[in-house]
């Protein structure tokens, strides 16, 4: 086996020079292919001869004749150069129509309601061999689950990302009021007086009756009557259908609920803060063609879903 001292004297340029000389058997033509002067190629050949302790090529007339050692090592060198060329060759473009496998996305339940159906429907059209896996996630554990490989990206309200993550803004999610018009005889837009007088169902993941809505009301010296809290948005429509009450939910979810359950929507009579919904993915996946295609597909589907539902917000220019 060749010792380390010899290997350190041989670099890729020397192996490439040897390969071209084996093909051309002429210094001038080889130098032209390598974009080198003849003196440069001659110097490279000298270094290779010294490293391998063999003449390698003998001048015969105007050409070169390889030695037995050169002929012996040529196939292995060609294989090595071919392997390097294959390794650094740009990957083939991703073709969703022929790909088979899983796409995994993390979303909290309100965004899942708005986007999962349109996403899987479009995915089935473009990638019929693929399967979409939705993973329950929220902003508290989104980054850790991403690092653990639970999904390829998360759609949520994310905090400041780690240096190895990329957070791409998608849209500003405002809130709307929803209610059953058969239970609560109000015409939109709801007045402040009707809003604070009506019973409210609050959505709280930790079981608190005080949310951002109450903080906004408190700023203008008002309060509301919260008669129940639920930890999941899926419980809201049945509760609204059962009793006269109002719930404040994210707009993309609220408009879906209104269509599915014949509920009425109204903009709140007070200003409520909007939530910046973003996509979080790993920096190492930024240039991956399959992952990039899936991220772009979500952006396109979400943009159309927001528009179709009548949401005021749309996908921001940075993501589109």
Automatic annotation (TrEMBL):
Keywords: Activator, DNA-binding, Nodulation, Transcription, Transcription regulation. Residues 10-67 form the HTH lysR-type domain. SUPFAM superfamilies: Periplasmic binding protein-like II, Winged helix' DNA-binding domain. Pfam families: HTH_1 (PF00126), LysR_substrate (PF03466). It comes from the Bacteria. Belongs to the LysR transcriptional regulatory family. This is LysR family transcriptional regulator.
């Amino acid at each position: 086996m060749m010792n380390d001292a010899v290997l350190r004297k041989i670099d890729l340029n020397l192996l490439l020079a040897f390969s071209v000389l084996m093909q051309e058997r002429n210094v001038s033509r080889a130098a032209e292919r390598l974009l080198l002067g003849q003196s440069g190629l001659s110097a490279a050949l000298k270094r290779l001869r010294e490293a391998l302790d063999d003449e390698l090529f003998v001048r015969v007339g105007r050409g070169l004749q390889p030695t037995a050692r050169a002929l012996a090592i040529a196939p292995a060198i060609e294989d090595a150069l071919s392997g390097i060329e294959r390794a650094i060759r740009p990957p083939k473009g991703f073709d969703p129509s022929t790909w088979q496998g899983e796409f995994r996305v993390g979303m909290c339940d309100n965004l899942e309601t708005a986007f999962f159906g349109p996403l899987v429907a479009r995915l089935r059209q473009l990638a019929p061999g693929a399967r979409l896996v939705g993973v329950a996630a929220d902003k508290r554990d989104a980054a850790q689950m991403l690092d653990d490989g639970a999904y390829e990206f998360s759609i949520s309200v994310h905090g400041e990302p780690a240096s190895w993550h990329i957070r791409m803004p998608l849209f500003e999610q405002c809130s709307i009021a929803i209610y059953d018009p058969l239970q609560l005889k109000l015409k939109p837009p709801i007045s402040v007086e009707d809003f604070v007088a009506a019973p409210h169902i609050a959505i709280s993941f930790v079981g608190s009756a005080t949310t951002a809505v109450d903080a906004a009301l408190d700023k203008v010296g008002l309060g509301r009557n919260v008669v129940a809290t639920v930890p999941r948005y899926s419980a809201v429509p049945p509760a609204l259908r059962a009793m006269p009450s109002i719930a404040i939910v994210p707009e993309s979810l609220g408009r879906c609920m209104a269509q599915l359950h014949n509920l009425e929507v109204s903009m709140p009579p007070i200003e409520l803060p909007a939530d910046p919904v973003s996509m979080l993915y790993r920096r190492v996946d930024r240039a991956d063609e399959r992952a990039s295609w899936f991220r772009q597909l979500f952006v396109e589907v979400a943009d159309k879903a927001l528009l179709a539902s009548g949401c005021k917000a749309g996908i921001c220019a940075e993501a589109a």
